[in-house]
Design goal:
Helices cover 29% and strands 16% of the residues. By secondary structure, the protein is an alpha/beta fold. It is built from 11 helices and 14 strands. The protein has helices at 46-54, 84-99, 163-179, 194-199, 214-217, 219-231, 256-267, 291-300, 313-322, 332-336, 340-346, and strands at 16-18, 21-23, 27-29, 61-67, 104-109, 127-128, 137-141, 147-151, 156-157, 184-189, 237-241, 274-278, 305-308, 327-330. The protein binds progesterone.
Length: 376
């Protein structure tokens, strides 16, 4: 038994203008790292075209996080968008999505200190805002090519003179993403990677123009946003952030909600395609965003707001009805259900994701999840 809903009264299935993109509905595919790329070269593989095309019914697909430079890499098997070979390898992926009517943004990633020297150019230490001990783990490949969890290497602090080069790398990646056929880029400013490391008080101990008060800690983020917008167009640029208290002490902030609103107010006049919230409970731990904060954020940020973090269809409908969000991105549910919007539309049952095949490997747990069949 399924419950048919009219798409007219279902808040999930109302169309939405997202910057330059006309998006048919509010069910998006969240960025999902799968670590299946080819090394050396960090090249997308043909199987990825099939995987994303299967999911092209999403309002918008946000690609798995994709490093913008060799230094930006933190995980073996993640794709890059800094070489012409990577552009050529992404082209069939975006073409396959477009061929079946979908839209796909490229998520631009710099991992900062979340890396290992064996993944870095010349085996050098990873870079971050400050030199601080970390318990964070990353993933290398073992002798059989399987993902291998490993403690991150100690990072070194970036010189202020290196920051323009990082901003330029985001701009170059934006140019390449456009050439690769993506419809937009999404800057990864969330989940403890470089831009979040600069934002959070605990991870940014700098005493130059990029550290100290929130106005200084958000400087790099805003420079990156402006560089990407100048390179393509603000209405082709989205941004993902982690607003609210972090569950990790390494990313503790002095005033999480007030600082988030400061960032949101700085972003508002920039006219981005959307702001994407990786909500604090995406790991299943910690508190969700407080209703009062959601209201304040809505006032501070007039543009398209997207939520993500273990939503169900019902919770997503509720967030849309409340006016807290304009769209909701689904991660784990989209891994296991290539036709997720159709299932939501019909109230159909969902496949369960298999966590053992999230990272690394091939087609198993990647392109072999079945679609729902209304007549079976
Ligand atoms: C965190 C959130 C994000 O933006 C990107 C990633 C991709 C790689 C994931 C990482 C995640 C969480 C920690 C993982 C890592 C791969 C290996 C690592 C799962 C989802 C560990 O096993 C600790």
């Amino acid at each position: 038994m399924t419950t048919e809903r009219s798409s007219l009264d279902d808040p999930l299935f109302r169309p939405l203008q997202v910057g330059a993109l006309a998006v048919p509905h509010r069910v998006w595919m969240a960025p999902l790292t799968r670590l299946r790329c080819l090394e050396p070269g960090d090249l997308p593989i043909p199987l990825m075209a099939e995987h994303y095309a299967q999911r092209a019914g999403a309002g918008l697909i946000v690609s798995e996080a994709t490093h913008i430079s060799p230094q930006a890499k933190g995980y073996a098997g993640a794709p890059g968008i800094y070489s012409d070979a990577q552009v050529r390898a992404w082209q069939p992926v975006t073409a396959a999505v477009h061929a079946v009517g979908g839209r796909i943004a490229c998520q631009l990633w710099h991992v900062g200190r979340i890396s290992h020297s064996s993944l870095q150019p010349a085996g050098l230490p990873p870079v971050g805002p400050s030199v601080l001990p970390t318990q964070a783990r990353t993933s290398l490949r073992d002798a059989q090519g399987r993902p291998m969890r490993t403690l991150c290497s100690p990072a070194r602090a970036l010189e202020v003179s290196e920051l323009p080069g990082i901003v330029d790398a985001y701009a170059a990646a934006t140019r390449r993403a456009r050439a690769a056929g993506f419809d937009a880029v999404e800057i990864h400013g969330a989940n403890g990677y470089l831009l979040h490391q600069f934002l959070a008080a605990a991870s940014n101990r700098r005493t130059d123009a990029y550290g100290g008060p929130i106005a200084a800690r958000m400087r790099l983020l805003l420079e990156v946003v402006d560089a990407c917008a100048d390179t393509w167009s603000a209405d082709r640029v989205g941004l993902r952030v982690s607003f609210g208290a972090s569950s990790s002490p390494e990313l503790a902030d002095d005033a999480p909600e007030a600082n988030a609103l400061t960032v949101a107010r700085a972003l508002a006049p920039r006219g981005l395609a959307y702001l994407h919230l990786s909500e604090p409970d995406w790991t299943g731990s910690g508190e969700g965003l407080a209703p009062a904060f959601r209201h304040a954020l809505r006032e501070a940020y007039p543009g398209v707001l997207v939520g993500a973090g273990r939503y169900t269809a019902e919770r997503a409908r509720e967030a849309l009805r409340q006016g807290w969000l304009d769209a909701v991105a689904f991660g784990r549910a989209y891994i296991a259900n290539p036709d997720l919007p159709e299932r939501f539309r019909h109230g159909a049952p969902l496949n369960e994701p298999d966590a053992t095949t999230f990272y690394g490997g091939g087609a198993e747990g990647y392109t072999d999840y079945p679609v729902w069949n209304a007549v079976s």
